[in-house]
Amino acid sequence: MGYNQEVYRVAADELARRRMDAEHRANALRARITAQFPRVTELELQMRGSAAEVARAVINGGDVEGIVAEVRRRNEAAQTELAAILADAGETAANFAPQYTCARCADTGYVGSEMCDCFRRLLADGAAKRLSRLSGMELTSLDDMDLSFYKDRLAMSKLLDFCRSYGENFSEESDSLLLFGPTGVGKTHVSLALASMAAQKGYSVMYGPTQQLLGQMEREHFGRDEGNTGELLADADLLVLDDLGTELTGSFYQVSLYNLINTRLLTKRPTIISTNLSPAELQSRYGVQIASRILGTYIPLPFKGDDIRQQKLERRLG
Ligand SMILES: [Zn+2]
User: Fold this and answer.
1) What is residue 189's three-state secondary structure?
2) Rounded distance from Cα 115 to ligand 1 centre (Å)
3) Which residues form the domain of 20?
4) Treating both helix axes as pointing N-terminal to C-terminal, what angle do 117-135 and 5-36 enclose, rounded to 10 degrees?
5) Which residue has the higher pLDDT, 226 or 236?
6) Ligand 1 centroid vs 17 CA: distance in angstroms?
7) Do 154 and 106 have their domain in common?
8) Do 182 and 259 fall within a single domain?
9) Is 164 a residue whose pLDDT tops 50?
10) Is the pLDDT of residue 1 over 50?
11) How far away, in angstroms, is 219 Cα from ligand 1 center?
12) Strands 271-275, 299-302: parallel, antiparallel or unpaired by DSSP?
């Protein structure tokens, strides 16, 4: 758990950029205004000196009340004059102070020792973006699932409620899920949304079509590419294997898949598998060893219905 270093660096860089931008804008404005209206500098010096004047009166035991009243009157006059000059120039004195994106933390990312919400948001967004870049997929949300495409809306809405709660409460202790059903009924959409929710909470997530992930492992194994994809897949807080069953068959894939699923089971790391295969087909394709591990420990989530892309097409034509 914890955001990837790159995600931290990008978020911290963004905060630094916002901070410098705000300060730069304030400094540039001040430089421009004081060059144009030297009187502004005089007025500011005068106002800054007034606290010292009052302090001197207190120490010297003069007519403190009278001096305070006089200083206040002069300050108000100075402020009015300053405001008038700035208004003529189309500016306000407030812009002399840096206008931070986040007023709460002045774009430092922290309020005292507490991380500010703006920093948290940057980290969550960065993690989600990184995931979508790694997987090459557009991120999805459970909220844009359209229930009108499902015949059994009640069943689907219950399934989505379960998924929403799973995503919101995701942790290293979460169960593994098996999303199964025919093509085009939202399995990829849901698995990607769950991956994105876990990533936004700061968990390391690996996501991809099974064929693509295993293909990458194979290239690395046979020295045709560099990387440690196998380790990343085994170690991620959440692994999402999309579209299991469409990958090539062969002993390398079979063994790698078994090792991956088994390792994650033994280390108690949650895995989400989506597949068009029925439980019986899983068994005949992968053998008892792999199938029994998946069917015996993953929570089965049946997706039912007709291909949504097909339905959308028919709706448009109809
Ligand atoms: Zn902030």
Assistant:
1) helix
2) 8
3) 5-110
4) 130
5) 236
6) 13
7) no
8) yes
9) yes
10) no
11) 44
12) unpaired
Q: Rounded to the nearest whole angstrom, what is the distance from the C-alpha of residue 262 to the centroid of ligand 1?
A: 43
pTM: 0.71
Q: Do 213 and 268 share a domain, yes or no?
A: yes
Tell me, yes or no, whether 101 and 151 share the same domain: no
Distance 261 CA to ligand 1 centre (A): 41
The four Cα atoms 271, 277, 283, 284 give a dihedral, to 10 degrees, of -140
How many angstroms separate the alpha carbon of residue 4 from the centre of ligand 1?
Answer: 20
**CA–CA gap between residue 237 and residue 161 (Å, rounded):** 22
Q: Is 131 contained in some domain?
A: no
Q: How far is the CA of 24 from the centre of ligand 1 (A)?
A: 18
pLDDT of residue 2: 62
CA of 105 to the centre of ligand 1 (A): 4
d(CA 145, CA 189): 8
CA of 99 to the centre of ligand 1 (A): 13
What is the 116 CA–ligand 1 centroid distance (Å)?
5
On the 0-12 / 13-18 / 19+ scale of CB atoms within 10 A, 283 is middle
Which position has the higher pLDDT, 133 or 260? Answer: 260
> 173 CB contacts (<8 Å, ≥6 apart)?
268, 270
Structure token digits, residue 293: 């591990």
Average pLDDT, integer, range 195-212: 89
Residue 59: how many other CB atoms lie within 10 Å: 9
24-82 per-position pLDDT tens digit: 999 999 899 999 999 999 998 888 888 788 888 888 877 888 888 888 899 999 999 99
